[in-house]
Write the structure tokens for this entry.
Amino acid sequence: MAKTSRKRPARKQSWLDRLPKWVKVSAVALIVLVAVGAIVASPYLTASSDKETTLYLRRGTSNEVVRDSLASCTSPQFASKVMRLVELTGGDLSTRQGAFNIDEGESALSVATHLRRGAADEVKLTLNNLRTKDDLAKRIAKKLMMSKEEMLAALNDKDLCSAYGLNPDNVTSIFLPDTYQFLWDVEPAKLIEHMAKYSDRYWDDERKEKARKLGLEPVEVVTLASIVEGETSKADEKGKVARLYLNRLAQHIKLQADPTVKFALGNFALRRITFADTSTPSPWNTYYVEGLPPGPICLPEKASIDAVLDAPQHDYIYMCAKEDFSGYHNFARTYAEHEAFAAKYHQALKERGIRR
């Protein structure tokens, strides 16, 4: 019996088979282009910063200058890749201004995108261990775009200070030691406004009531706290020192605080205050004038402010540094007791050869 042959069924065409030849050729070409582009772009897309840093841009800075700045705070290779990506997208950084943080390991593409259209980052400003307005302005200018002279001009602007119930002598009372965050290009007046708001929050109803019971305004509490801080670094003694000065204020006795003499003279290295020093005519010299000086003689820590507000009761009105140079003081109720303590301290100074 003869075999009958069976026809194999025709293969069904896929959608790919039905595409025109020119489409297939174009698709292959596109795939090749993408692959080549990925190979070419890979060094730019995978490059990353090897350190955490901040790039500061001033409006009007050319791309070339930005490249140099970026190279100095990262590396020339990384900077070149970042700027190449910026320029490929038509980026002109001359219109940008502010601080731009770069994280360790951040890609060149991410940095380029941030520089082109990302928001500027805030800068941390820590205020502590500062005495004068000049010191304050210098610290601010070191971290922000403004100059020391611009900040000082704002601090000395009577109209600006009066908007917050202050004057150029006591405006530093609102600059409480802390770490703040500002845009790098913040204006001096805006910075002062921010500090005033922060100070208002700090001076809550409880602190204001404590100040009222002492017969003082908040700015006067800060001023007294600055004297206390100048007198002692011992946390367990600050309240005692504060009450001594409160006793003097209540009895209309001159404060006779050595730190105010140093401030008046502008010489904070003095270790021995002389009669000539205490006789210096100055509203800041509390040997020369009665009451508090016109404003703070430093930026006192919040602990010193609270030490004034919570000063324990006692009836001491004299004090003298201990002769052991421990940083603590001998306290006295009478001038005779004080004289005895002072004699011991002066003898110790003499023995150590300390004249100034």
